[in-house]
Design goal:
The chain is globular. The protein has a domain of 41 residues. By secondary structure, the chain is α+β, with helices and mostly antiparallel strands. Helix content is 35%, strand content 21%. The protein has four helices and two strands. The longest helix has 10 residues. It starts with a helix and ends in an 8-residue tail after the last strand.
């Protein structure tokens, strides 16, 4: 749905990858982001410090589904 609505926006880049594998790559590239939306285990419960290192100064880190889930 996001790609359908934002796919033509040049400011948006979609990546489908395992976060545990992708976080080290981003860190090695010295990438930073103004918005991080953590909705998976990697960056929310695991590898949180690594994910926070990707946040630019003044950026926003949003975590979804922090209440217990059936899965």
């Amino acid at each position: 749905m996001a790609h359908e609505h934002l796919g033509d926006d040049p400011r948006v880049h979609f990546v489908v990858a395992d976060g545990v594998d992708y976080l080290p790559r981003l860190l090695s590239e010295n990438r930073t982001f103004t918005l991080v939306f953590a909705d998976a285990w990697a960056g929310k419960y695991h590898h949180l410090e690594e994910a926070l290192q990707l946040l630019a100064v003044g950026g926003i880190y949003v975590v979804d589904d922090m209440r217990p889930q059936p899965n």
